[in-house]
Specification:
two-stranded antiparallel ribbon; alpha+beta; 43% helix
């Protein structure tokens, strides 16, 4: 799904993306249909790395994630919609994320506190293999997608309390505040 989204972004930007697939036995044409294409984690990282370097878009992960809605999550999104409580929907999402092609490992933190002292939920994401070049893109895409999913579950007014990221602020850090509409902490 991520690669298909990046291929679509390249087409919208009017740039060729054939070079992203150099050395692989597939190309951009395989990502414009309804038939899913399965890639290894290594192949996907290679394509993403090349895409991020060549796309003329600030924060391509944010842009890609913002385009998601609950329908993009397929059966998992439907299952989450049927959960009786938000916490249970999140537990389903985190539990089944690996089979959806999630690029990061997820953990639900149920011991958090909101700024007003009430119980809060948090999601912790980590890379399978640390890669400082890919980490911003993967976090942007993951957390923006999750935000759109949560808004699909709870309504358009949902917003997180805080977003904490381990990497330094990119030059487009102001876009994070616009997308997430909450305090964003880098480093």
């Amino acid at each position: 799904g991520i690669v298909a989204g990046l291929v679509a972004m390249a087409a919208e930007s009017g740039i060729g993306c054939e070079a992203w697939f150099a050395g692989l036995r597939l190309g951009p044409a395989e990502f414009d249909g309804e038939t899913p294409v399965y890639l290894s984690y290594r192949q996907t990282c290679q394509i993403i790395r090349r895409a991020v370097r060549s796309l003329p878009i600030r924060g391509p992960g944010l842009v890609l994630g913002e385009r998601q809605n609950i329908g993009h999550f397929g059966l998992l999104g439907l299952a989450m919609l049927t959960a009786p409580r938000f916490a249970e929907a999140l537990q389903l999402g985190v539990h089944y994320a690996p089979i959806t092609g999630a690029m990061m490992e997820l953990e639900l933190d149920t011991k958090g506190r909101d700024v007003d002292g009430s119980d809060g939920l948090g999601m912790v994401a980590s890379m399978r293999t640390p890669d400082p070049e890919l980490e911003p893109f993967l976090c942007e895409e993951l957390f923006a997608s999750c935000l759109m999913l949560c808004r699909g579950l709870l309504g358009a007014d949902f917003r997180p309390t805080v977003l904490e990221l381990a990497y330094p602020a990119p030059d487009y850090a102001d876009d994070y505040a616009r997308v997430f509409d909450c305090e964003v902490r880098f480093d």
